[in-house]
Amino acid sequence: MHKDTPNEWFESWFDSPYYHILYQHRDEQEAQFVIDQLTSYLNIPIGSTILDLACGKGRHANYLATLGFDVAGYDLSKNNIALAKENQKGKVHFLVHDMREKFPEKFDVIFNLFTSFGYFDCKDDNVKTLQAIKESLTENGIAVIDFLNLNFVKENLVPSESITLDGITFSIIRRIDNDFIYKDIRFEVDGKNHHFTEKVQALGLADFEEMLEKAGLYLLEVFGDYKLTKFDQQKSERLILIFQ
Q1: HEC profile of the chain
Q2: Which pairing describes strands 137-148 and 160-165: parallel, antiparallel, or unpaired?
Q3: What angle do CA 142, 34, 115 make, to 5 degrees?
């Protein structure tokens, strides 16, 4: 049986081919809609430098490049970066990089989208990430974190389900425990059992406000969905933070 260790779950799982099978439904149109909304709201001039931090396979980064921006995509997963490069479009470059470490360049805008934050065991690592973002923003640069709304997740958590994709049945168990949201994923391939556990810190708006303050960043606006409607602590599906 494959068993990941807690401090590297995101490295092993995101590099697994089964991760891409399970999440193959992720929608290009939704990714483009999010980018259209944010670039319009922020009024980002064409030619601006933009970082897609934790870029995955590059859905957002590649689309940003087609809009005329100078784009970088950073991700810890070598497999993700390799796949992103295969689909590379426009003026974009991809790099394997840990978001907690200083970035090699500066950007006018930094996007961290689709709940790609709070993977670490220690909250100090979140502040390190925010500090790295701060140090890599240009003088008037803006950053955006798109996270889940914790209260909405608590009220709408689906405890268990089974999904069959490409002949593989994934059994998924979700729970919230000890300040983390867990997703246990089990499946069998060629007689071998596999088990991965996703976990993300159960962070609310107050947690982000505290971490941003520690990092010396200023929260400008908070939205509750990809249409950028006002954030509602109970009803909003997302927690979208705009800061500098």
Answers
A1: CEECCHHHHHHHHHCCHHHHHHCCCCCHHHHHHHHHHHHHHHCCCCCCEEEEECCCCCHHHHHHHHCCCEEEEEECCHHHHHHHHHCCCCCEEEEECCCCCCCCCCEEEEEECCCCCCCCCCHHHHHHHHHHHHHCEEEEEEEEEEEECHHHHHHHCCCEEEEEECCEEEEEEEEEECCEEEEEEEEEECCEEEEEEEEEECCCHHHHHHHHHHHCCCEEEEECCCCCCECCCCCCCEEEEEEC
A2: unpaired
A3: 75
pTM comes to 0.90
pLDDT in tens, 136-176: 999 999 999 999 999 999 999 999 999 998 998 999 999 99
Nearest alpha-carbon partner for 75 in 101, 42, 40: 101
C-beta separation of 108 from 79 below 8 A: no
